[in-house]
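Researcher: Structure for this, please.
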Amino acid sequence: MNEIDLKRISRLTAILTQLQTKRLLTATELADKFAVSVRTIYRDIKALEQAGVPILTQEGKGYTLMEGYKIPPVMFSESEANALITVEQLVVKNRDSSLIKEYQEAINKIKAVLRYSTREKTALLSQRLAVSPAISGVNTSNSLMLIQNALTNFQVLRITYQREDENKKSERLIEPFALYYSLQENWTLIAYCRLRKDYRMFRLDRIQTIYQTELIFKPHTLTLQEYLAEKEKNFKTPDTLLS
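Model: Predicted structure, token format:
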């Protein structure tokens, strides 16, 4: 499959998402959004129809999906949808920009499969939610998604880390173990540090560079509950950094 085919598949998927997000879309609107010609949109719509997607054409008005068509098996109640919309307002104030980006893309897909009446209500709710300006919303890291991926795939990370109490930077090979969100609204990575040969905590905003390596580590036998219990016994929390 060449690059042109991949781009078209990606565009077809995005068009389907757009059709589920809005009730009626014109070929011109879709062409402008995806930076292609109206003729290309006509071909894309035809391809979706041939694939079994029930697209209805309203002459002179645009395209819409047959009422009730949704991507199975995702179904959300109104309360579930409202919960997701509420969390969205908190996530956008998060300090890690990679989390914000991935969540917004996910929530857009979720909105696309909501019933039309529920979608209208969640749109209203999102306009009636606000987060205190005391929460800055300034992004201080962009690595949370990469770290989560490494954590679940047991991949060693190579980082350049700068301690708060010194200007010196250090190179580390670390095995991601867990993530902790502090009262200071900072993400902290708990990891086994191969340099220190022990578990250490790294604030994401102090990680200067981060890369996934091809090294794989064995899953840790220690549980997060055991780690936190040990911290509490020593009158410390993951807010007390030891890197």
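Researcher: Any notable elements?
Model: The chain has three domains: 3-65, 78-127, 144-233. The beta strands are 55-58, 62-65, 155-162, 169-181, 187-193, 198-203, 207-216.
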